[in-house]
Specification:
The chain is mostly helical. The protein is 70% helix and 0% strand.
Length: 150
Amino acid sequence: MKNLFYLVLINLITINMTIAQDSNSTPPQSLYERLGGVEGVTLIVDDVIEAHMNNPEIKEIFIPYKEQPERLASIRQHTIDFFSAGSGGPVEYKGRDMPTTHEGMNISALQYMCVMDDILGVLNEHEIDEESKKDVLFILWSLKGVIMNK
């Protein structure tokens, strides 16, 4: 399943580079760069975690981690690494693949949509450009089948 992640990642980076090269002659910025690099991704992940913990539809999944600070810190770092690697950053994601990570969680379509809404809301708060938000949405949508109902 990690192969699926890398396939999606390679396709996304290729699409981004092709679009950027076709539209102008300046070197394209990766999604990672457009999100603000490691600092920007970290701020976004922190705000997304907070949004999930306050979202009435999904907070029951995330609130228990407040009582497990070491586990929350580990999940946070894996999420930062996952988004960094998946958006073209110079980071290697060393966590578990998405089906294994979400095994037994039985995430519903509603819960997945709430996660996507929280992420897009945070991107809006951080004033991320529309093209980058579309790219993030593409990544999230591509992972839906390997995360939901597992």
